[in-house]
Amino acid sequence: NHLAGVYWQQGDSAAAVHGLHQAIALHRLGGNEEGEAASLVNLGTLCGQLGHYDRAYDYLQLGLEKIQAMTNGGLDSITMASIGIVHRKLGRYDDAERCLLVALDLARAQGDQMAESDALDSLGSLFLELKRLPQAEEHHQAALGIAEAISHRAGIAQGLDNLGLVRQRQRDRHLAEQRRDPEPGLEHHQDRQGDGGGRGAARGHERID
């Protein structure tokens, strides 16, 4: 697993995938179920990062089944979150929300604040994709708050980026609503002003980044 991680950091995804397959085979040969489960989860996560979402789901599900077998039905928050993300990528939004909510509950029960922040961020991204903007903002804000509390730099950066995306979407929605519903009297004013007023009104609706 460590060597596969090194390959991945070096940008050699094929070697990383090959290394994880070798690790799974070795763990099975040695009867190391914990190692096998971890390698399956890592392989599923890597496949997801490469965009191979069907394979990612299969490996993650196998890893989760191994974890459940070893823990008498217990679940792992990080694995559940990874499965939820894959469901979202595959357009299975109900399944994604279910898995991510389970991951969030598990992280809180285990006192794992980093996993809690990650699950909240993933839920926020799901809600953003579904255009449920208030929920997206709420979850990204909560994730950012936890990341700041535990000084998790990557989480803070991710949280700020995600909140920026939500607020951009909110601005776009607000501008679209303004175009559909002009202020009272604006249409009459534009009629009196002619082309010049029309151009001025159009400039007033341009977004300034």
Report on the architecture of this protein.
This protein has 209 residues and is an all-alpha fold. The chain has ten helices and no strands. It has helices spanning 2-9, 13-30, 33-49, 53-70, 77-89, 93-110, 113-129, 133-149, 153-180, 186-204. It is elongated and about 70 Å long. Mean pLDDT is 82; it is low at 186-209.
Quick description:
The chain has 209 residues and is mainly α.
Blueprint of the fold:
Blueprint lengths: L1 H8 L3 H18 L2 H17 L3 H18 L6 H13 L3 H18 L2 H17 L3 H17 L3 H28 L5 H19 L5
Helix pairs in contact: 1-2, 2-3, 3-4, 4-5, 5-6, 5-7, 6-7, 7-8, 7-9, 8-9
Defining traits:
209 residues; mainly alpha; 10 helices
Largest sheet: none
- Amount of helix: over 70%
N- and C-termini, Cα separation: 44 Å
The succession of helices and strands, N to C, reads HHHHHHHHHH
Number of strands: 0
C-alpha-based Rg, rounded: 23 Å
Low-confidence stretches: 186-209
Nearest-integer average pLDDT: 82
Number of helices: 10
Q: Give the overall silhouette.
A: elongated
Strand content: under 5%
Structural class of the helix and strand makeup? mainly alpha
